[in-house]
Fold:
Amino acid sequence: MLGQSDIERIHRTSMQVLAEIGVLFPNQEALAIFEKHGVKVDGQKVFLTEDQAMEAIAQAPAQFTIHARNSERNVLVGDGVPVLAPGYGAPFIVDLDVGKRPATMDDYHKLAKLAHALPNQDLSGHLMAEPADMPPKTVHLQMLHANMLHSDKPFIGSAEGSTGARHTMEMASILFGEKVGERPLTIGLINSLSPLGYSSEMLEALMVYAHHRQPVIVAALSMAGSTGPITLAGVLVHQNAELLAGITLTQLINPGTPVVYGSTSTNLDMKTGGLIIGGPELSMMIGAHADLCRYYGLPSRSGGALTDSHTPDAQAGYESMFSLMTTFQSGIDIVLQAGGILSSYLSFSYEKFVLDDEICGLVRHWLKGIPVNEETLAFPVIAQAGPGGNYMMEMHTLDRCRTEFWQPAVSSRDGIESWMAAGRPDAAHRARQRWQKLVAEHQDPPLDPIIARQLWAFVDEQ
Amino acid sequence: MSDILEQVSTAIIEGDLDEIVDLTEDALDEELGAEEILNKGLMAGMDHVGVEFKAGNMFVPEVLRSARAMQMSMEILNPLLAESGVQMLGKVLLGTVKGDLHDIGKNLVAMMCEGAGFVVKDLGKDIAPEGFLEAVKEHDPDVLGMSALLTTTMRSMESTIKALEEAGVRDKVKVMIGGAPVTQAFADQIGADGYASNAASAADLAKQLVS
Structure:
């Protein structure tokens, strides 16, 4: 998306922002850490020199593995192959029958089961939809517990201040039966507060993760035209400054802590003031963000299956496909929001989750490309079939007929007559059948009963 | 209508911050009353802005600049209106809650409430419960409006209502809340007097709350 000279101009301008304008860190402990390392602090504002920032981020690893309780499900972050995770942070569910409604803990359990079952979700998630029927101060425990029980994929940790982060460390320690700090056992999402700041709560969580040497995604969601300049280059400048400042803090606390440089910054609709995640601006930002990550040698997080539509309709499909293709093609390393999101992040939909996972599979297959080798060039079978021949019953075909092509789980490929006979179901209704079946058939992956009891006990105690 | 009122109204529609103060003073020099300038100049302009905004013909930054122009004019007119005993609909105090910098919706609510005939005091964004409490004591508003865009910050609304209760001023003010993750159920749960889902309905709600 960006040329080398553009990247360097963005870099230089953000260094000027870091040194001259500063970034707000409203947390005494964080400010003390900066000061201890010779960083200029004025009130709650931190001013980093280019050398200080670059030296810090150079210590962050370019790649790391997040471990799962089932090691076959470990994921490598940072090789340019996207690691996919479900939607994050939606307060509402959109239901095909009633439309928008608050999410419940029952929804959360179902979504955790679905995240486990869907083949293209690599992480089991966290905060997919925020249960409104639980006490807000402890709901993160219930969500962590649900993801740990229903899935053996790596889980995302809580960033609900220092409490959420500490609970995450303690539960990870129980789940893996080891002291947290040796290797990445989870990953947390730390959001900046654009422009040029962080909330104290997020900083508390960031510091707990860094002290335990657990990975964090430090991410911005700046909105061009309100919390950022209306020009996308300007957004790249200020978010770069605020993110590098946050990443610097992780490295000052614990050099070598895995950290991902994240952004889902996008534009606002100037007619309504609403956040827009289904437009071309978002996809431009995904591409530019990936370029900047490569420039700094940091793993990247951006993109997802994103849409402004309120229901899994054609708009949701084309917007989500567009952002996912851009995400994959840009070589983004970790993709939160890869399934389920509607209404510009406000809603989660079961059906959309299933449909997005289908798109993830399709795009993943497309990016594998066309392997060209002796076997695939297929000269012997072309000779065998000869002019006017048919390949259908050749062993070359039979051997590969189940594996060579991508197989959809939801897309309609039956003839029109059988579709008519089935009551003309659209994609959303076929997706509903699929998620209901997957949830009904779900079985929790085996977990040592002692560990299971300890987890229950920990959650009950809090 | 006199030329000068027409010009005031145009300056509002165009969000002309350079001219609005001079035009307001010119209108007063022409012996027009503050109430007449308000109703036939400012309100006439804001009515137009409201209609054009709803129709999608005016964009948010343009609308907010119009609202700013109105505020600049009102700073001159307010003391005169008070002197002549003109009754406004009431006073609305607004702010975006602690930890939240997303104030577009709140700014639109301010604009709509002004357009509806309220005196609006906008505290800005990132306002802690104590900040709201102090402002309620100082400005004695009829309605307090709070906004939040983040699920993490909306809980601060509950803390603010508690702070008002503890200080014994909860009964003196009606509380309305709004923002993307906020619902009527949440408003009921935290003991707010009302919830509105968009700027126009927030102004209607404020009217209801003071009637």
User: Anything to note?
Assistant: The two ends of chain A are 48 Å apart (CA to CA). Residues 64-368 of chain A form a domain with the TIM Barrel fold (CATH 3.20.20.480).
